[in-house]
């Protein structure tokens, strides 16, 4: 049986994982802190001094988190009791059990980067829910809405294409179906370009019709198994039909 490769982590200098932990995550945290600070007057208007103190507390917790990351401190358990707190802490214990470190503690640059990034978002959530009465505040709401509005032209073009496809799909032959399937796969793939986490919170809206960009983007696909996937699905469809008969 093939051995499962080691998870990517920040100890691989120059890798995506390393740059994620060194640059991208701190940038996201900085933007979150800035967002809270910019809403200080709103918190005061809604909650008075209590809202201002809550904003200060949330920023303090997030600044502490950023410092833990940048100085490669041990990853600590969650403290705020929430529906998923125990699950997170159990998984942290599991990660620690896999380490060869002398102190047996998971650290930011030595733990799997995907776990570390997800944990960072969970710690942001914890900082907010520990700061009532602003524990309802969505620190990413503005950027999500901005990117969605800026992407409307592309969204409309894609929806129009899908509506037309639904109307005509029964009349498409095998090659046409395959072509449309490949288009949808590529749209799904390149949709990741709009992920705000990948851009470190910077605007990443889709301002052009992605359907018209697919051919130009093909050379940037590192591993393309679309033909193999289509073959598997086609065979499954044929097998299912034979069983029905």
UniProtKB/TrEMBL annotation:
Organism domain of life: Eukaryota
One annotated GO biological process: DNA damage response
E.C. designation(s): 2.1.1.-, 3.1.3.-
Annotated InterPro entries: ARMT-1-like_metal-bd_sf, ARMT1, ARMT1-like_metal-bd
Listed cofactors: Mn(2+); Ni(2+)
Family: Belongs to the damage-control phosphatase family. Sugar phosphate phosphatase III subfamily.
Protein name: Sugar phosphate phosphatase
Organism phylogeny: Eukaryota, Metazoa, Chordata, Craniata, Vertebrata
């Amino acid at each position: 049986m093939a051995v499962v490769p080691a998870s990517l982590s920040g100890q691989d200098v120059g890798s995506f994982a390393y740059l994620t932990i060194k640059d991208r995550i701190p940038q996201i945290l900085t933007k979150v802190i800035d967002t809270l600070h910019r809403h200080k007057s709103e918190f005061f208007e809604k909650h008075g001094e209590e809202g201002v103190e809550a904003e200060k507390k949330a920023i303090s917790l997030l600044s502490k988190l950023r410092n833990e990351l940048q100085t490669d401190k041990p990853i600590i358990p969650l403290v705020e009791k929430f529906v998923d707190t125990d699950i997170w802490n159990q998984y942290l214990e599991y990660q620690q059990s896999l380490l060869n470190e002398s102190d047996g503690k998971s650290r930011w640059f030595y733990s799997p980067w995907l776990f570390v990034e997800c944990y960072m978002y969970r710690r942001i959530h914890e900082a907010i829910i520990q700061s009532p009465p602003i524990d309802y505040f969505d620190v990413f709401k503005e950027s999500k809405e901005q990117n969605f509005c800026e992407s409307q032209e592309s969204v409309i073009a894609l929806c129009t294409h899908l509506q037309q496809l639904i109307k005509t799909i029964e009349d498409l032959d095998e090659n046409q179906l395959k072509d449309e399937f490949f288009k949808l796969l590529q749209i799904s793939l390149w949709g990741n370009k709009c992920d705000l986490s990948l851009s470190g919170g910077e605007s990443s809206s889709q301002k052009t019709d992605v359907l018209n960009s697919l051919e130009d983007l093909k050379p940037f696909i590192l591993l393309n198994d679309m033909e193999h996937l289509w073959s598997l699905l086609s065979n499954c469809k044929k097998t299912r039909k034979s069983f029905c008969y």
